[in-house]
Design a protein that fits this description.
- The protein is an alpha/beta fold.
- It has one domain: Vaccinia Virus protein VP39 (Rossmann fold, 3-Layer(aba) Sandwich).
- The chain contains 10 helices and 9 strands.
- The strands form 2 sheets. The chain has a 7-stranded mixed sheet, with helices on both faces.
Length: 319
């Protein structure tokens, strides 16, 4: 085998996780990871990705090693996100902002990003703050997730005064109750619930565990965990995005770029129609691929080209 490290070319060029995991380096910042390494089917040392605790420990190690995050604790019931894919979303959105700023990525406090469904892990704000020093607003419908995210922010000096978590008191709302009349948001991001029901989520879990472990389990544990509101939404991904698009029009002058992940390609055509019907001025689709999964970001704006130029000039001192 070549001595060169294998590069995950499907990840964004600035993604810190493009190289194959350096297990010895990760163990050096978190010795607990040693307990969850075992030979894979090729005989090489690997993390047991079918074990949700192993995945969480790996993520803690990645956050410590690459992002200098020393405290990352939340309930094992909550969704434990895969770091590389979350980092890719942030990097692609940074590129999108640069298109309104003569190709230069705007960094620092002048950028405010809204994370819809911040979750207990607070993962998108962690990456956005440590990579670009942006400010974040994180919303969630679960008070316990907000509490856990706040604890992570409070216990990491790099995140303090950079992330504000806001509780969404109406589970049917996305932007209402979160964006104030005077708020200016440079971009909003969202990883919407994928499944349409608990049953649907359980079927997906069984497929995933079988693919990872090669064994079928009657009632498997999801390897990235996740409680109900994180995994499914009545009507599934499309219905959630439909609500998001509908509400986004009302806040079209408050936010430069709205965006969401779209996992199901079959939903794209309907989403484009929603955006056209909502009179979005520009829509962009950015493909992403992590591991065996391909997904994409759909972004849209209600601001004209001139309004976007003025936004950048006023807020960023740029274009």
């Amino acid at each position: 085998m070549s001595a060169e490290k294998q590069i995950k070319t499907n990840l964004h060029p600035r993604n810190k996780n493009r190289e194959q995991y350096d297990l010895s380096a990760l163990i050096s910042v978190n010795s607990e990871l040693t307990n969850y390494i075992k030979p894979n089917k090729y005989g090489a040392n690997s993390v047991d990705f079918s074990n949700p605790i192993a995945v969480k420990i790996l993520n803690k190690s990645l956050l410590s090693y690459y992002y200098k995050i020393e405290y990352w604790e939340f309930s094992d019931e909550n969704l434990c996100p895969p770091i590389p894919g979350r980092a890719d979303y942030i990097h692609h959105m940074a590129d999108l902002l640069s298109e309104n700023n003569f190709g230069v990525i705007p960094i620092g406090n002048k950028i405010t990003c809204l994370d819809i469904g911040v979750g207990a892990s607070c993962i998108y704000p962690i990456i956005g703050v440590t990579e670009y020093n942006w400010k974040f607003i994180g919303s969630d419908i679960d008070p316990k997730s907000i509490e856990a995210a706040n604890n992570i922010v409070d216990r990491n000096s790099s995140l303090k005064n950079k992330v504000e978590c806001r509780l969404q008191t109406n589970p049917k709302d996305v932007f209402y109750g979160i964006i104030g009349r005077e708020d200016k948001i440079d971009l909003s991001i969202c990883n919407p619930p994928f499944h349409s029901s608990a049953e649907d989520a359980q079927k997906g879990t069984k497929r995933k565990v079988k693919n990872l472990s090669g064994e079928a389990e009657f009632n498997p544990t999801l390897n990235f965990a996740g409680i109900s509101n994180e995994l499914y939404y009545d009507g599934g991904e499309y219905k959630f995005i439909q609500n998001m698009v509908r509400e986004s029009k009302k806040f079209g002058k408050n936010c430069l770029w709205f965006s969401t992940l779209v996992s199901k390609q079959s939903n794209l055509k309907r989403i484009y129609k929603l955006l056209a019907d909502s009179e979005a001025i520009q829509t962009k689709t950015k493909p992403m691929g992590t591991g065996n999964k391909s997904t994409r970001i759909v972004a849209w704006t209600f601001l004209s080209k001139e309004e976007r130029k003025e936004w950048a000039k006023t807020r960023w001192g740029g274009a």
